[in-house]
Amino acid sequence: MLKEVHIIAPFILANGGDWHAIDLYLQYSKTHQVTLWSHQPAHPDLKSKYPIQEIKPYSGQVPNSGTLLVSGARTEIGHWYNHVNFDKIILIHNLLSPSALYKALHRLTIQGRRKVEVIYVSDLTKRFAGLTGEVVHHIPPIERFEPKIKTSPNHTTPFTIGRISSDSLAKHHHSDIQIYRTLLDLGMQVRIIGGTCLSPWLNSHSNLSLLPAVPQSEVAEAYSTLDCFYYRVPSVIKEAYGLAVIEAMLSGLPVVCHREGGYAEVIQQGVNGFLFDREDEAIEIINHLKNNANLRKEIGMNARQVINKYLVNLKI
Questions:
Q1: In terms of C-beta density within 10 A (0-12 exposed, 13-18 middle, 19 or more buried), how is residue 314 classed?
Q2: CATH 3.40.50.2000 domain range(s) in the chain
Q3: Which of 315, 304, 14 is nearest to 139 (CA)?
Q4: Which CATH architecture has domain 143-307?
Q5: Can you name the CATH fold of 4-136?
Q6: pLDDT tens sequence across 108-131
């Protein structure tokens, strides 16, 4: 009989934490009896493709027995939890908020009466938490992302630098506006998926595309429209992990990212990607990649190998 595994997540934003839960489901459903759970109706992009059950305590529809895997410290845990039992309880912490983790542990341990293992998505999240636990970097299935293949040089299409994120100002650093302007002046095409929010500050340009966010089903294709991936968020936020960066690497793209973020732990400078501290460094790196197709290919090929070093199975 297959071991039962229950994965519970919010599943309402279809964000990195939700997709981490989905990827765990895809990984372990081959060898375990895995059920996905949510406290509310799931996001349509998720509900239409995956068997996510809504928790309904009064109907007896709740996780019970086996292993409980909670994806994210802000995942709601209702009163039903007090009346069920599990062999193992695992909390995946994917935030840089220690208070969220402490509150989740207080709830899941029932004031110390249950043992809860904490898995961190990066060393950065573990340092912020100040608690023990294993670090397991989330690496999505590599077959979901295929490198962009150019059969012959296309001199009519400019080198395309871009990024993919949610379409929110909170995801964009204010100084990136000037970076994009400079890259346009250098003859590059700038394609920002999740960038319509920037339109008040970026004037129309024939090589500029400010596009809305895309559903996860279209993300792999979106990466294939880029030659290089650029990423930075406001300094007041910091990325606990930065799944978009990992997806870009699996897509065979050279990535140029600000040094502060959990993703930096899997980037070897000049080997499988680039990290920068200052704007001028970022522009210099991107311009160098623009003018060196062989370097782009080498970095992109090395980037895809991230799966060999960091793909780890949770002990569930």
A1: middle
A2: 4-136, 143-307
A3: 304
A4: 3-Layer(aba) Sandwich (3.40)
A5: Rossmann fold (3.40.50)
A6: 999 889 999 999 999 999 999 999
Q: Which two tokens stand for residue 278?
A: 């200052």
Do residues 252 and 304 lie in contact, with contact meaning Cβ atoms separated by under 8 Å?
A: yes
Torsion angle, CA of 299/266/285/276, rounded to 10 degrees?
Answer: 180
- Structure-token pair, residue 156: 């009519």
> What global pTM score does this model have?
0.93
pLDDT digits (tens, 9 = 90+) for 55-113: 999 999 999 999 999 999 999 999 999 999 999 999 999 999 999 999 999 999 998 89
Helix (H) / strand (E) containing 107: helix 98-108
Distance set, CA 284 to CA 235, 249, 291 (Å): 21, 20, 11
Are 201 and 177 in contact by the 8 Å Cβ rule? The answer is yes
Instruction: Give the C-alpha separation, 15 to 251, whole Å.
Output: 19
Tally of CB atoms within 10 A around 308 = 9
- In the block, tokens 């493709």 appear at 49
CB atoms within 10 A of CB 233: 19
